[in-house]
Amino acid sequence: MRILRENERLNDVERWKLERHPLDVREAVLEVYSKKGVGAIDEIPGEHERLKWVGIYPQNQGGNNFMQRIKVPGGRLTPEQAKVIGRIAQDFATGPEPNPHFGNNFLDITTRQDIQMHWLQIEEIPEIWRRLEEVGMTTVQACGDSARNVVCCPVSGLDREEAFDAYPVARAITDFFVGNREYANLPRKFKMSVTGCVEDCAQAEINDIGMVPARLEDGTLGFNVRVGGGLGDGPRMASDIDVFVRPEDAVEVARGIAQLFGELGNRENRWTCRMRYLVQELGPERFREELESRVAFELEPAGEELTKRYRGDHLGVHEQKDGCYYVGLNVVVGRMRGEDLEEAGRLAEEYGRDIRLANDQNLIITGVPEERLDELLREKLLERYSPNPKPFERGVVACTGSEFCRFAIVETKIRAVEWAHEMDRRFGDGVGQDVVRMHFSGCAASCAQPQIADIGFRGETAKTEDGIVEGVDIGLGGSLGVDAAFIDWVEGARPADGVPEALERLLRRFQQERRGGERFHQWARRKPNAELRAIIRGEAG
């Protein structure tokens, strides 16, 4: 599948991937690095990069300290899987010093329905893999230039309004790509969203492939296809390519798009190798033509799109289509103790069916009979992870930040929690709506998805009278769904310590000026950026 463009000059990562297939690193971990130690990794050029194909990243701290990401297709965990992951965090994710807010032995739920944990040693990885594989889980291709975790509506198969249950399709696509050597060396990471939900829970607009529910005139249900969405530098909403896909053909279309990306995607510059740049270059019509030449059937025109809105979260108690209930728990910034995930697995086993992870970093227990609902709601774990959180802690999302990530400029998790709690303290029951969504990324990579938040933060350095300090760029007015738009970055390099006061000024003004049921992102969009900037700086009357 690998085809070089004319005059293409491969970057170092591409050369390393061609010298030795990235998936071969798994055997090396098992047979060499776990026995000889971390120093053996340094002897092989590009080997730290290849480790991403088995979900392993070096931490900021260097040495024998690694993050590992576990792939959770569609965010769905059995109770046993949740208990095993929680136990792994307790046994292995132990830092030299407890985090001042979160302690030790914790794990993170990500914005792609994965789980990741920190402070792992290379010698421990085989035992971790053994435990995961015993319950049907893997870390293969959780990272790297290949198909990442396929996201889905977290309550697929349960929601009373969904067009159809798309999880089996998401699972089939996952099964095709995981371990598939032919499609494991793509120009860059490859993100897919598959959903039958009418509320855009899987965020199709910001994925390389977005399959959203649609219907043909004869009533046939399937997906319309969007391509080329993404965040980071150069964010882009996915393009409609006028294609309808029947569920049984979804794997072939995903395969064809991966082939197209692998053959035509640019491999020279690591910052511009994402599929959104290829879609921008080709345009939707030519992209469709190129895709049709690579799949095993003639493509059908798009059907009637069934998406109605963007839901945001699944917190609280909700009735399922089968008469049972699911309970969405607020895991603030996605971080929880290993023992707490193990306990969540126990609760799901005792009271319900399974656990679902949401891409807003929260957790859902499903299948709870009505007669057991009150008993579950009285469980001690739900005091820590509330189904009815305060408005600001409900909407806060944060990436790993500089605590562990080598790319992040600032610490994110503790700050995001403190800012949310401070806004809940200052505003009591909120600002006249359910939630103001605040997303905090430690760098421009946008792992916390700040561009689609009401208020987005991006790590930056700021200059003050006392010197250079950690700061943030502040953006306002993002959302997905029928009124999808990215935030405008209205203020740059604001010192982090001054953010709570800036937030209060913004939110007070919103309270004063909002019209009817207007939401924060709608208010921010109708205000001139210069005026918003003046409010943030305290210069507006």
What's the short story on this structure?
The protein is of the alpha+beta class and 541 residues long. The protein is built from 18 helices and 20 strands.
Describe this structure in words.
This protein is α+β, with helices and mostly antiparallel strands. Helix content is 32%, strand content 19%. The chain is built from 18 helices and 20 strands. The chain has helices at residues 12-19, 25-36, 39-42, 47-50, 79-92, 125-134, 167-177, 250-264, 275-282, 284-292, 338-351, 370-377, 381-384, 391-394, 413-427, 499-513, 520-526, 529-537, and strands at 56-58, 66-70, 76-77, 106-109, 115-120, 192-194, 209-215, 221-227, 239-245, 304-305, 316-319, 325-329, 335-337, 355-357, 363-368, 396-398, 438-441, 455-464, 467-476, 488-495. The strands form 4 sheets. Strands 1-2-5-4-13 form a 5-stranded antiparallel β-sheet. Strand 7 and strand 8 form a beta hairpin. Helix 5 (79-92) packs antiparallel against helix 11, helix 15 crosses helix 16 and helix 16 (499-513) crosses helix 18 (529-537). The longest helix has 15 residues, at 250-264. The model is unreliable at 2-7 (pLDDT under 50).
Layout of helices and strands:
Layout: H1 12-19, H2 25-36, H3 39-42, H4 47-50, E1 56-58, E2 66-70, E3 76-77, H5 79-92, E4 106-109, E5 115-120, H6 125-134, H7 167-177, E6 192-194, E7 209-215, E8 221-227, E9 239-245, H8 250-264, H9 275-282, H10 284-292, E10 304-305, E11 316-319, E12 325-329, E13 335-337, H11 338-351, E14 355-357, E15 363-368, H12 370-377, H13 381-384, H14 391-394, E16 396-398, H15 413-427, E17 438-441, E18 455-464, E19 467-476, E20 488-495, H16 499-513, H17 520-526, H18 529-537
Parallel strand pairs: 6-7, 16-17, 17-18
Antiparallel strand pairs: 1-2, 2-5, 3-14, 4-5, 4-13, 7-8, 7-10, 8-9, 11-12, 12-15, 14-15, 18-19, 19-20
Helix pairs in contact: 5-11, 7-8, 15-16, 16-18
